Amino acid sequence: MRKFSAVLMCLMLLGSLLAACGGGNNKEAQNNGGNGGGNAAATGNNGGGNAEPAAGEADDITQRKVTIKIHYPLPDETTLRQQEDDKIARFQAKYPNVTIVKDDWQYSVNEIGVKMASNEAPTFYNTWATEAQFLVERGWVADITELWNNWEYKDEINPVLQNQFIVDGKVYGITQNGYVTSTVVNKKLLDDKGIAAPAFDWTWDDMYNVAKGVADPKKGISGIAPMGKGNEAGWNWTNFLFEAGGDIETNENGKVTAVFNSEAGVKALDFYKKLRWEANAIPQDWALGWGDAVSSFQQGRTAMVIAGAFDVIQAALNEGGMKPEDVIAYPMPAAEKGGKHYGVLGGNYLVINPNATKDEQEMAFRYITFDYFTDDALKSVEDTINARKAEGKYYVPTPLEYFSDDSEYAGKVKTIYDKYDNVYKYDPQLFSLLEGKPEAQFGTQDYYATMSNVVQESFSKKGTDSKKQLDVAAKYVQENFFDKIQPQ
C-alpha cells in the first residue's frame, strides 16, 4: 500500500541500504544512457543555472554544467540522510559538473499537481506502484525509455517490480523496492498453545483454526491482528478479495468500474466477520493502524499480522527481541486448497520530472542508478551485516529486491548472506508460493478509505449484510471517484 511504502519500504531496498557504499567503479557504459544531446538551456524548474554548452562540449554531458534537485530523506531520517550525503559526495566526485540541490518533499497525490504547475517539483521524486497510470495520464512523469534502453543493467532489474511503471511499452520510472503482502507468524505463541504450525500451502480454514486456537482474550493475546484503522484496513482486506478471485475495478475503453461488490467480495468480508464474531480471534481493541499491528506482533500480543514481511520481521527481531526461529514469513493463505496465495503487490519508484531539460533528466537517471549493481554496494551490505552483528542485531533482507532473482548480482548477494549467522533466512517454500497482484491503478486510496469504513462496521456491528455493505461502498466509490476519471 502506497501509504506505508513511502515511510517504511525505503528500508526494504537493498540499494538504499547500500547507499553508504562507494560507486566510483561503475562501468562507463552505465553512465552513457540516453542522448544527453544539445538542450542544456536553463529551465528554472530545479533552481538550476545551466548554461548553453561551450564549443566542443555539445557531445559530452560531463563537460556541461547541470543542476538537479534530488529526492532527499525527511529531517528525522538521520541515517538515511547520512547515506544520501555520502552518495552525493561520491556522485559529484565522478561528475564535478553537477550541482545537487536537496529537496525533502515527499510525494502526495494532493500536492503533485501544484508542484508541477508552479515548476517546483524536484528533478526526480519518489512515488508508489499505484500511481503509474495517474501520473502518465497527467503528463507529470518523463518518458525515460531511451535512457532505460541504453542502461547496461536493464535486463537484470526485477521484472515483476519494474513492469508496474511500464505503460504502453514505455518506461516512466525505476523500481527502488517492492513487496508482496504476507502473513508473519509468531511460532512461539503457537507452540505455547500446542498448535502445530500450518503448511506453507495453507488456506483460510488453516488461518481461522490457528487464529482461534491461539487467541486468549483474557490475557490480551489475539490470534490475528488485521488492521482496522485508516486506509490500511481496506488494504489488508483487499488481499482476501484477491484470494477469493475478486478484483477492485475493471477498465474498459477508459471506463473504470467498481467490481469489488462481487461474490468474491462477499466471501472475503464474511471471512473477516468469522474471525471477529465466531472465532473471537482479533484484538478487543481492533482499531489498529499499520504501526499498531506491527507493534502488537513484536510485543508478542498477536500470533499473526498481515503486512510486508520485511518490516514485521525487522521490528520483531531487532526491537522486540524475538528469535529468528519463532518468526516465520508465510504467503497469504489461499481461499481454498489449490487456490492462489495472492498478496497485494506494491513498491517504491523514482520518476523524473518531464519539465527538466534533457541533460537534467539524464543526470537524474544516472544519479538514481548510481549505486545499483556495484561491487562497492556488495561491500556495503557486508559491512552493514557486520555492524548489525556487533550490535547483537539481525540483518533482514527484503524478499523482493530491485534486482532479478536470477541475475548475476543476486548470486553475489546470496553468497554474502550465506556467510553470516545473523542474516535472517526466509523459508524457500515462501518464494515458491508467494504471488503478487498489483494494486488498482485508479482511485486506489479512495477505494481503500471506503473499504476501511466497511471493515470497521463489520468489526463493530454483529450481523451486518456483507452484500449490502459492499453494494453501498461500490456505489459510493463509483459515483464519487471512478465516474470522475477522464477516459484517455
TrEMBL record:
It comes from Paenibacillus mellifer. PROSITE patterns: PROKAR_LIPOPROTEIN. PANTHER family: ARABINOSE-BINDING PROTEIN-RELATED, SUGAR-BINDING LIPOPROTEIN. Residues 33-50 have a biased composition (Gly residues). This is ABC transporter substrate-binding protein. It holds the Pfam family SBP_bac_1. Residues 32-58 are annotated as: Disordered. The keyword Signal applies.
